[in-house]
Amino acid sequence: MAQTTASKQPATFPQGSPLIRVEHLTRTIATRAQQTIILDDVTFTIPAQQLFAVNGPSGSGKSTLLNMLTGIDRPTSGRVVFAGQELRARGENALARWRGQHVGIIFQFFQLVPTLTARENVLLALELGGGGGLPRSAWRKRAQDCLEVVGVGAFGNRLPSELSGGQQQRVAVARALANDPPVLIADEPTGNLDSHTAHAVFDMLAALTQRDKTVVYVTHDRELAARADARIELLDGHVVGQRNADAVLTHAAEVQ
Ligand code: ADP
Ligand code: MG
């Protein structure tokens, strides 16, 4: 990509070094009747510029954890330290600005604007995110570059309805790349795709680590998770397995 993340990713975070540290993170939700523990004392590290999988069955707390990593939700206790800075320390406006510059989010159901072409969807992200430091005159080229990186450069003029599921998810990844964030966070990005397409999209996301991106990939698919550089496995809000994640197992370690 023309624009690199060199200015945003300090030299102190070379590939494989700890980029995001999650420490004793707990999230509870109080209802009138009871206190529900959704995440319980979760501790792990996401290495820079690798593909990191968060694996676990439905209801294990994966999406709740992601919302803490992006600062959309706040921990009940514990903390998230992102490139040496604690997220909680930022105010809401600063956090929203920070998110726009540092994190690209990818959803299971793509969430493309159906009335805009693939290219316009990426351009919209540039508009909303301030253009990733680029002048407006460079946005169109930037959008095309992003579409090409994820393998849909020829489909810029198509509407989402004129694309396959796999192609739509690629456009959604291009949109997440638009403002050149160092981290991509994908919540079940292949959960809506057939197995062959899921593996192809996984490979495309994994390849982005060669372009300085740290990719956090949430999935209930153990086969895909096993292909990640590093991973944790969640069960009922506990970390029950890990690889290369410097995690503390807080429950019976029945999976590795
Ligand atoms: P996953 O993404 O792994 O499927 P979630 O993080 O969405 O899991 O949810 C984990 C658990 O927390 C589930 O049991 C879910 O029902 C519960 N939960 C999530 N958000 C809330 C909420 N706002 N209020 C009550 N329970 C919630
Ligand atoms: Mg979820």
List the helices and strands and how they pair.
Layout: E1 18-30, E2 35-47, E3 51-55, H1 62-69, E4 77-82, E5 85-86, H2 92-102, E6 103-106, H3 118-129, H4 139-149, H5 165-177, E7 183-187, H6 195-207, E8 214-219, H7 222-225, E9 230-235, E10 238-243
Parallel strand pairs: 3-8, 3-9, 6-7, 7-8
Antiparallel strand pairs: 1-2, 1-4, 4-5, 9-10
Helix pairs in contact: 3-4, 3-5, 4-5, 5-6
Bound molecules: adenosine-5'-diphosphate (ADP) and magnesium ion.
Summarize the entry for a quick read.
This protein is of the alpha/beta class and 256 residues long. Helices cover 28% and strands 26% of the residues.
Q: Can you give a write-up of this model?
A:
The protein is α/β, with parallel strands linked by helices and 256 residues long. It has one domain (48-74, 90-243): 3-Layer(aba) Sandwich (Rossmann fold). 28% of the residues lie in helices and 26% in strands. It is built from seven helices and ten strands. It has helices spanning 62-69, 92-102, 118-129, 139-149, 165-177, 195-207, 222-225; strands spanning 18-30, 35-47, 51-55, 77-82, 85-86, 103-106, 183-187, 214-219, 230-235, 238-243. The strands form two sheets. The protein has a six-stranded mixed beta sheet, sandwiched between helices. A four-stranded antiparallel beta sheet has the order 2-1-4-5, with helices on one face. Strand 1 and strand 2 (35-47) form a beta hairpin. Helix 3 (118-129) packs across helix 4 (139-149), helix 3 (118-129) runs parallel beside helix 5 (165-177) and helix 4 (139-149) packs across helix 5. The longest helix is centred in the last third of the chain and has 13 residues, at 165-177. The protein is globular and about 50 Å long. The relative contact order is 0.20. The model is unreliable at 1-11 (pLDDT under 50).
